[in-house]
Amino acid sequence: MLLRPAELPFPFSPREVYGRGGPLVLEIGFGDGRFLVELARARPDWNLLGAEVAPASVSRALRRLRREGVRQARLYRGDARFLLRNLVPPQGLERVYVNFPDPWPKQKHQQRRLLRVPFLELLSTRLAADGRLLFTTDHEEYFHFALAEARASGLFAVRSAPPPPETLRTKYARKWLDQSKPIFHAEFVKTAESPREFPPVRRYPVPHALMQGELPPAAAFEKLVETGPAANVVLLEAWQGREGLVVLARVEEEDLAQEVLLEARPSSKGVYVGLRANCSPLVTAGVKQAVGLLVRWLQERGLQTVQRSY
Ligand SMILES: C[S@@+](CC[C@H](N)C(=O)[O-])C[C@H]1O[C@@H](n2cnc3c(N)ncnc32)[C@H](O)[C@@H]1O
């Protein structure tokens, strides 16, 4: 039920992923997943896709969907923009729901709002002709902001309407209704497609290096941060594994954040430095950078690089 981008091509094939055809419908920021359960019950013919950045919410939603016997949903843990850009087929979506997106009310945080022109441009390339986004919020100022962005994009016709009853039963809808807050709703109907290209992230072969020398103890390791043009990489911690050093790295790129396990261990050809067995992230420029950072740290501790593949 959980989509792993490293195991899927761009674009993914809904027929293969769901084992059937049918309209593909996405919910962005599904929180505890109860709206997906409602949609699944109301529209058994829809193939449901959900994106959510908060790992704890994803786990909760997975449990809920399993408990409720929902079989037509697939979840992505991460930024919806990555999912759209890297997995969803061009013109593949019939509908997108955005229920109570984070409003980022402070002026200085408005750049973080989802419903802005760049996102709407990307979305226009993944929505089918006259596909639509259904937007529900309690935040009046964000509501008007998002409508203005949709109009400014030149890609959507905006229709205001009362919120459909199912969007009023999400966790946040209940919270705001309990406080007697008004709820706002609009549909953005695709009228044109952005000419901009939104290519998927470049994937690379698995990076590794061979080094010679004595591995330092894990205790010698301290957190390392490297800010590059394409990625921010943090080597967070290291520990002694059964075969050598294991290092936990966090790799942040445009709309993708990955936790990656690296290792440096003796092998018949020297010290192998690369991704840990069973760790199969999407191999991006940032993942290569993380391996490179570990190699440099080892070089500074006296090891020599005899071969590298990145
Ligand atoms: C205010 S909550 C609303 C949750 C749910 N839709 C509801 O109505 O109860 C907003 C949710 O959007 C998620 N989120 C924010 N930005 C996101 C993004 N770019 N992609 C996917 N999920 C996102 C947050 O983690 C959070 O769970």
What does this structure look like?
The chain has 310 residues and is α/β, with parallel strands linked by helices. The chain folds into 2 domains: 5-190, Rossmann fold, CATH 3.40.50.150; 208-308. It is built from 8 helices and 14 strands. The protein has helices at residues 14-18, 34-42, 55-67, 80-86, 117-126, 140-153, 171-178, 285-300; strands at 24-28, 47-52, 73-77, 93-99, 127-137, 156-160, 184-190, 208-212, 224-227, 231-240, 245-253, 256-267, 270-275, 304-308. The strands form 2 sheets. Strands 3-2-1-4-5-7-6 form a 7-stranded mixed beta sheet, with helices on both faces. Helix 5 (117-126) links the parallel strand 4 and strand 5 (127-137). The model has no long low-confidence stretch (mean pLDDT 96). S-adenosylmethionine binds at residues 28-31, 51-54, 57, 79-80, 99-102, 114, 170-173.
